[in-house]
Amino acid sequence: MSGPASYTVTVDRDACDGVFACLVRDPRFVEDDDGLAGIDADDAEAVERTEASVTATFADDRIDDAQQAAEACPLDAITVETAETPGVIDG
Ligand code: SF4
User: Fold this and answer.
1) 3-class SS at 70?
2) Taking the chain (91 residues) in consecutive chunks of 10 residues, what is each chunk's mean pLDDT?
3) Whose CA, among 10, 39, 42, 74, lies 20 to 30 Å from 49?
């Protein structure tokens, strides 16, 4: 059996303007000390923070929530990317 695919969620903190449309779509988005969106790391496999962004890796079945938050963000500050599992290379 294979587990849920892993995916990353990134908040571009330069683009984020603290509108917080994301929070109501996915509670993993949280308001951080700067009044911008951060990511609650409790359920994350890994979190990487820089001044300009926060990226968290998850391996669960909540990618839809993250994608809805990304679509709801008026500033396109959220990116959700799936980690492609290496497959058969077609020739
Ligand atoms: S919806 Fe977008 S701009 Fe608003 S807080 Fe979330 S990431 Fe930032």
Assistant:
1) helix
2) 85 96 97 94 94 96 97 98 67 52
3) 74
CATH code (residue 43)? 3.30.70
Alpha carbon dihedral 76, 73, 31, 58, in 10-degree steps, equals: -70
The structure tokens listed for 80 are 């959700």
Residue of minimum CA distance from atom 8 in ligand 1:
16
* pLDDT confidence of residue 2: 65
Using CB atoms within 10 Å of the CB of residue 37, give its burial: 0 to 12 exposed, 13 to 18 middle, 19+ buried.
Answer: buried
Range of the domain at 77: 15-82
| 2 is a domain residue | no
The whole-model pTM stands at 0.88
Is residue 69 assigned to a domain?
Answer: yes
Q: How far is the CA of 55 from the centre of ligand 1 (A)?
A: 14
How many angstroms separate the Cα of 78 from the Cα of each of 14, 18, 44, 82, 88?
Answer: 11, 12, 16, 13, 30
